[in-house]
Amino acid sequence: MKSKLMNMRKEMLLYLLIIAFGALGNALISNVLSNYLKDVYAITAYQRGVIEFPRELPGLFSIFIVSALSMYSDIRIAMFAQFLAATGILFLGLFTPIYGLMLVLIFVNSMGAHLYMPMSQSIGISLIKDGKFGKGLGQYNGLITAFQMSGAIIVLIGFKYHFLSFETPIKYIFVVAAFFLFATVILLFYLDRRMHHPDIHHNKEKFVFRKAYKYYYTLVIMFGVQKQMMIVYGPWMLIELLGVKVDTLAILAIIGYFIGIFFIPALGRWLDRFGVKKLLYADALSFIIVYALYGFLSAGFTTGTLATAGISVFLAYGLFIIDRMSTQMGIIRTVYLKKIAIDSRDITPTLSLGMTMDHFISIIAAFLGGIVWVKWGPQYIFYLVSLLSFVNLYVAYKVEITD
């Protein structure tokens, strides 16, 4: 018994190191990608939306790749995924490729990152032994947020004091990110040798689509739309309309991550205490309010009725911080799926299918969002998504869960 407990602790330690290094590597990329594209390739808002196609396209393929690799364990698929992610960003860092090749490298990095997401969640769920999935996932995501904050601090210091720059032939920020992602491959290798859990070493179902999961599918589809606001158009409003640079975005990210270190574990505890249904209501209302306010500010900045300094700018900064934190609200959907799963073997393929749905909608939203921004103005993107978020409210009303 003592030996088994020791093994479980070592497995947990390895997993925590894996998600920490993975979060750090991805944070170094995500906190600079928009500015990299703007500064190095001088892209427009429309092009930024188009670039989301190769960046999000791997999410469409994830269900097919998971099906093709169903004979392998979740850990081994995660190893392959992180190797792809590290390789793509390493070459982007070592060279300044032509525009087309840059898109290919972003695609390779993104393929690995998207394939890794459901694998990491599945491994993490299998390590939770007390049945308190909200608390467990909250702790995982709290750790992830802490290392995301560390990545934002590295970005801030590096670009502010010119240790890092997009003007050098080698983009060292991407090389460092690749180092941490390759480190997760090594750690996953050791975890694979130690961990033998039936939920991650089973023969996975190749494809699962059940009517019972319809509201989960609805939530991930809606997240595909909302995610573009978080990742693309929220930051782009600050960059395009307010001229915000890398160091300012990094400071805002650090603040959001710092709050998230405490907020995300608390969210997990609230899930166990208050239940999924009430948290789905809170999630829906947050999307509706945040994007309505984004639209109001965008309209004001575009027409000149709001000053690009003072209170309105700080309000925009606050929305950016809240929006960044909301990316971690995905644990609500994951716990919801765990609670309604008919078979534990459904979880990994359903997470992968959900990602495919999310990204199919995400690609369309990114493309249409760029058109709306250019033709009618940025405020209409945010207003539209705020209205669409009432679908989340409807789902919260309809779901029936025994917590």
Number of helices: 16
What is the share of helical residues?
over 70%
What is the CATH third-level topology name? Growth Hormone, Chain: A
> How far do the termini sit from each other?
31 Å
**Text of the CATH class:** Mainly Alpha
Largest sheet report: none
The CATH superfamily bears the name: MFS general substrate transporter like domains
In the predicted model, the low-confidence regions spanning at least 5 consecutive residues are: none
Shape: globular
Beta strands, count: 0
Query: Which whole number gives the mean pLDDT?
Result: 84
CATH architecture type: Up-down Bundle
Provide the structure class: mainly alpha
Strand content: under 5%
Number of structural domains: 1
Rg is 20 Å
What sequence of helices (H) and strands (E) makes up the elements?
HHHHHHHHHHHHHHHH
